[in-house]
Structures
1.
Amino acid sequence: LAKTTQPISMDSYEGQEVNITCSHNNIATNDYITWYQQFPSQGPRFIIQGYKTKVTNEVASLFIPADRKSSTLSLPRVSLSDTAVYYCLVGDGVTGGGNKLTFGTGTQLKVEL
Amino acid sequence: GAGVSQSPSNKVTEKGKDVELRCDPISGHTALYWYRQSLGQGLEFLIYFQGNSAPDKSGLPSDRFSAERTGGSVSTLTIQRTQQEDSAVYLCASSLAEGRGSGYTFGSGTRLTVV
């Protein structure tokens, strides 16, 4: 399983764009990159998944360079409600990211007024 | 239902007692997972079920932990002779077998406190 490294915490203000970068130097050919969001007292929630280049949905964008050794989750114009822990996961895509995904401690994003 | 349902939402038990945690996955999801999350920590994989295949139990921390999935739907995680270190939030998730693009759907978890 590819190990991921991401910042422990980040601070931002409402209306700002937030970029969270995740390193995954030993990503395998079959691996997809998936990001989850977790609020206190809730289970993680799927945000976005990608394999290469750029993926965009109604919530976020995911940028993946050609070597795929890192990825950046971009949250446009964050609000207070985006305060949460964000997890970057890497695994094969057969079952939505792998059958034994390793969740690290994630990045605690704090958004202030 | 529309989401993954877990019960009970909270459970307080005495050390040494057995507990059963229940997970109702999304209808049609063939893959089901159990994770454990201790306070301030990431998620720890416990066990994985996929269809009729033998479950992947490699994450179970000890033989006091077991899980079953009946009829390819509801799953029960059983912890025997609970210890204080078992206190955590136990999360269940389900996904389509070919879940690429949608990931897992998690329940809200069962908060287990062993006193």
2.
Amino acid sequence: DTGVSQNPRHKITKRGQNVTFRCDPISEHNRLYWYRQTLGQGPEFLTYFQNEAQLEKSRLLSDRFSAERPKGSFSTLEIQRTEQGDSAMYLCASSRRESGELFFGEGSRLTVL
Amino acid sequence: AQSVTQLGSHVSVSEGALVLLRCNYSSSVPPYLFWYVQYPNQGLQLLLKYTSAATLVKGINGFEAEFKKSETSFHLTKPSAHMSDAAEYFCAVGEYGNKLVFGAGTILRVKS
């Protein structure tokens, strides 16, 4: 069991650029979640997948954000035309549907200059 | 809609003292409840979970939490704090097979 892996761990970009984060979940987990965490706050739900189907998206997920899980394994989160307000830690988690508990990766920290 | 309130954004205790971190939840259905811990620049690690079995739940590192339906609470305790317990703790609520909603977190400081 290799755990949830996220890449890159850190990304610094200029405002207006596009960025993409990748998440590799625990292999036998069918659910994959994306959360965003800003300083002093708890993780905020963005979206989640069951296998390759995106089942729910938060209103926090503006049109500039898109997430995919094309083969039901790894997932990508793309942010287009980044803004300074997008600076945050982006957390990925996976789970078995039945268990409820989420297993988190170490996160991808985005800094938008 | 589900929500979590963690009372106290910062808690400071002396090494060896009791740790008490408070969590109140709101849920329209029987909830699943979780406590996670986060060390600096790391992801969240599960401490313990309640899923409608025993109301007193034991977790890792000597932590435990008690589900009290009448008080809609799920407070986290540890009898004796250790320096290594210094971290941020998050309470979360979920429904079966659904996403988790997290509280804002409580930073625990342990004084020597």
3.
Amino acid sequence: EIVLTQSPGTLSLSPGERATLSCRASQSVSSSYLAWYQQKPGQAPRLLIFGASTRATAIPDRFSGSGSGTDFTLTISRLEPEDFAVYYCQQYGNSPTFGQGTKVEIK
Amino acid sequence: EVQLVQSGAEVKKPGESLRISCKGTGYSFTSHYISWVRQMPGKGLEWMGRIDPSDSYTNYSPSFEGHVTISTDKSISTAYLQWSSLKASDTAMYYCARHYGYSSSSAYVHWGQGTLVTVSS
């Protein structure tokens, strides 16, 4: 099984700042089957990015994804108040797995 | 509008059986895989398994194989997750999610609201 390791565990930032979240895979993720989700307390996850870099419908362009192989990044260019949440990466190949999450909190 | 509506919260005792449901509306139910995802209290997301509603082909995470069963009834556009013998460690929120594309390898754009399962003696 592919293990995804997200870093940092917690990111403390202020609104307007740039957030850079990392997701590293234990082996290459095939065909860039890599997604990012946002989850707020008491809510189901929301798909942000799939195919490593394609924004899902209605996702603001301040969210961007990049990377391939084993190293992937989610960037939020300027944090809005509603962006403070937990973010998960997922590889959705043959046997999907999630990373452990990165919490983006208000500094 | 695509919606996944899950059954309500459950409180069960260890050793009891349980089946929770996920009804898909607003799309062709047999055209998209459905996956189930567990979230234990205060923890992250864990993929449990997925099913192709068109032919009921399933595959499971090694962590969950043999402990849960995923099924569908396409006549009522509903997917199920069931346990034959619950444990306290099954206490969690369970989400169903519809795959974005038509293949098994696809991200999850539509999610149910979650079903909270509490197992306690």
4.
Amino acid sequence: GENVEQHPSTLSVQEGDSAVIKCTYSDSASNYFPWYKQELGKRPQLIIDIRSNVGEKKDQRIAVTLNKTAKHFSLHITETQPEDSAVYFCAASKGSYGKLTFGQGTILTVHP
Amino acid sequence: EPEVTQTPSHQVTQMGQEVILRCVPISNHLYFYWYRQILGQKVEFLVSFYNNEISEKSEIFDDQFSVERPDGSNFTLKIRSTKLEDSAMYFCASSALAGGRTGELFFGEGSRLTVL
């Protein structure tokens, strides 16, 4: 089955810096790659997603890039703010049936 | 904005007892899921449900687990005889099939299950 590896496990940055989180996946049939943000004790919330027919997607300070050949995708957050502090999970899926395979998560801490 | 709602938010039970976790998915969604997250670990897929039947399940979802959509709004997860290792946060999720952002999952707030 699919296996998703995520790095780093923790990331500490100063407010205003950029943060990059990377994921690799194993199943070349995967075609949907969402990123979820989870604040302590809360539900995971989708922040951005990308499908395998595009290489990059941007939404304000957040961007995701996908390299299908290398089977990796990355989350980029620019101009980080303290409220960006949370656990970020990448995930991969083969279709629209909702079986997401999640990465291990990255604890992002943004220091004021 | 519509949300997935779950009850109870926290349940404490004794090992061997049955528990039922309840979810109300977003009303026009067609796919329903249960995921779990053991404290400090990744979110894991348990089961997906479509058209009143299981469409896919993981190896975690053994005979102790069952799902049901007893009416037009609720979606339940039953654990027949709980074990200590079932202690986790259980998330219900739903997604729409057609139109909009197909594949996006909307998660509930979770039900924390503690098995003593």
